[in-house]
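Table 4 source record.
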Amino acid sequence: MRICVAGAYGAFGIKHLEALDAIDEVKVTSIMGPTRAKIDALATERGITHASTKLADCISRDDVDAVILATPTQLHTEQAIACMRAGKPVFIEIPISDSLEDARRICEVQRETGVLAMAGQVRRYNPSHQWINNKIRAGKLKIQQMDVQTYFFRRSNMNAKGEPRSWTDHLLWHHACHTVDLFQYQTGEVATEAFGIQGPPHPELGIAMDMTIGMKVPSGAICTLSLSFNNDGPLGTFFRYICDHGTYIARYDDLFDGRENQIDLSDVAISNNGIELIDREFIAAISEGREPNGSVHEVLSSMETLDMIEKSFQS
C-alpha cells in the first residue's frame, strides 16, 4: 500500500514515518509539509520520491492509495473531506476536528462517499491500555475510577520539537480528547455526566492553560482528568486505573501495578509502539474492506462529550 503522510515534517508526522518503516507491506510515496525547503530536505533524507506543500498535489497522484493527516488541527476537517472526495482512505490525527459541528461534517462525508476515515485515537492501541481492555472484555476487571494527569510546559507557542507553531494547541479539543475517548472505550459506555473547570486564558494565545474535567458513565465509573500547560516537571499523560481487582498505572506503552511493579506486555501485540499498531489497523482495515477500530463514527460520541464539557465552561 502506498501512503502519503501530510504534515510529515512535524513531530507526529515523523513518528508515523518511523512507524510505517516497520510495516513490510507499506511504502511512503508522497509527503506534504509547510515549506518547500523543509519538505524537500525530508524527502531526500528518507528517499521519498514526491514532496509538496499542497495536499491537492499529493492526493491527485496515482501512486497514493491512502493518506495520514498529521497536520494542524484546524486543517483536519477540510483536508479529511478532500481526501474522501478524492477516493483516498484517510487517517486523521487526534483530534479529527476542534468542534462537534466539524466532526459531524466529516462523518456525513464518510457516509456519502463510503471512503474509510479513521481517527488517531492512539490510546486504544498502546499495549498498556490494550492489556486493560483485554481484562475488561474477559470479565476480569471493572473500572471504578480513572485518574489521569496530562501535563506539559508550553507557555509559548512551541511544538514538541521545540519549534514555533503556526497554530494553537488546545487542552480540551486535543489533549482531553485522548482521555475522553479512552474512558468511554474502556468502559464501553458514553458519559452521561461531564463538566469542566478551566483556569485563566493565556494573555497572547487566548487558550486556558489549566483545566479539570470530570465524567461519569451509567455504570457508575468516574474519570477525573487534570491538564496543564504550566507544569514544570515530568511531561506527558499518566493514567491510573482503579479497578475492582487491582490498581494499574499506564505510562504510554508501559504498564505497572499500583505498587509500581512493571507488567509484562510482550504478548499483547505485535509491537510495543502504539503509533505503529494504530497505523497497522488503518492499513489492515483498508485491505480487508472493513470499518477500523476508531473510525470517525466510533469516536463521534467522544466529540459530543467534549462539546458537553465546553458548554459547561460557559455555565
